[in-house]
Amino acid sequence: MKKLVSKLKGWLKTRLCSIGIDSKKDIVFFTVIWATGPILLLVAFGQLVNQIQKSLIDLTFLTYTIGITATIICTISTVYGIWGLFFKEKPFKGHTFTGKFSVLIGARNEAKVIGNIIQDILKQTYQNFELIIICHNCDDNTYEIISQINDERIKPLELKNAPYGKSVALNYGAKRATGEVIVVFDADNSVPEDFLEKLASYFPYYDGVQTKIETLNPKFNLLTKLQDLEFFIFSDIYQKTRQKLGLNALFGGTGEAVKKDVLAQVGYYDEWAFSEDFALCTKLTVNKYKLGWCTTTYVLDEKTPWWSDFFKQRARWTKGHFQVIFRYAKYYWNQPLDLHYLIAPMIVLAPFLTMLLWLVFFLRLPVSASFVPIWVWASPWIVWNISIAARVYKERGWRGLLFFPLLFLYYYHWLAVLTYIWRIKAWPKTTHGFDKEVRI
């Protein structure tokens, strides 16, 4: 009997891990995320707007403003999605950089994974580089592991008692870098041997460059598979379309590079920002610097497999995006055509505001309003989803398309995490080291 119970417990634990649950916190965040989509769909399509006895205020102006905004955002997204399907990548023929790269890696308690990315960097075919690893408030043996590697190109830095944050660590390393171009990786990454060699062809033609970001552990469980599809779809479509339109690339937090003198001119990374990558590329864009999209190489990034870590990570990203929106609100008010640089956070903002309006009616508050006809904003939204599905089928076939219904509901996590962003006061640590096991 005990053996049977033990087997059942083992089987249950394996099944739960396969969908991203490893603790009670994961169960809570899993429930919140997956309940958000169905609840909002029921609210949106349910019979919620009943006759109210007496209205104190008419919100028609607000509802139409939000409806038109959502329509514009959906239309822009649709254009990006369709164009991204048909644009073909062409080999980039730029200049060839022969100077020195300074590779920066911020590390906090990364003893489990730091050795892998170090070996990848040391094997690079482009040999003119230095590797600066900033061990930021570590209480494990990350610094000791790095210090034991006998290679003069490695420069371990120990940063203690400073406020924790990736931008703090990167600034500490960047100000001590001796290379002409700063390259940023995360401790859990992996890169091909010719990464720096491929990247070199984009400098000095661009002031900054973002390379492709792919998933290191897509088959670990359901959550990593969905993140893999998400990054594959959106980064590729949006970055490719932006490149074809002559717009700046968006930085992704890893696999990004920028000239050191340019970084210094704009004041390095903003330590107030929870999304230091988005803050930097916005600041560079405002200051008229040119940012390119590198399609010839990539960085493999490990995705978190647990819903609690995922929820907090996405809440940090969302809060960081809104920080940038508020910081640069004046610029975008004066340059409204540049709002496409904020397309990602605005996609989140529009349905969030719409959800609040639906909540007003759901609670039967004494207000009245008229809405933009559903076909106006739903039409581009439907076309956009079809273009995304077509993209998945084009690159991943029917097997990839099987996950699309789940991916559709998964999108709603961006709304779910909005309820949590107010609790993000410091940079939450994301656990790494999940690239070996195969769970799905």
How would you describe this structure to a colleague?
- The chain is an alpha/beta fold and 440 residues long.
- The protein has one domain (20-95, 201-440).
- The protein contains 16 helices and nine strands.
- The chain has helices at residues 2-18, 24-45, 60-86, 114-122, 142-147, 166-174, 195-200, 222-244, 260-265, 276-286, 307-327, 329-334, 343-362, 374-401, 404-410, 413-416; strands at residues 57-58, 101-107, 129-136, 154-159, 181-186, 208-215, 256-259, 291-301, 367-368.
- The strands form two sheets. Strands 4-3-2-5-7-6-8 form a seven-stranded mixed β-sheet, with helices on both faces. A two-stranded parallel ribbon has the order 1-9.
- The model is unreliable at 47-53 (pLDDT under 50).
- Give unreliable regions as ranges: 47-53
Give the fraction of residues assigned to helices. 40-55%
Largest sheet, in brief, is: 7 strands, mixed
Strand content: 5-15%
Tell me, rounded to a whole number, the average pLDDT.
Answer: 82
* Integer count of domains: 1
Structural class: alpha/beta
Rg is 23 Å
H and E string:
HHEHEHEHEHEHEHEHHEHHHEHHH
Could you give the count of β-strands?
9
How far apart are the first and last residues' alpha carbons, in Å? Answer: 29 Å
Number of helices: 16
Strand arrangement, major sheet:
4-3-2-5-7-6-8
Structural shape: globular
Short description:
The protein has 440 residues and is α/β, with parallel strands linked by helices. The protein is 50% helix and 12% strand. The protein is globular.
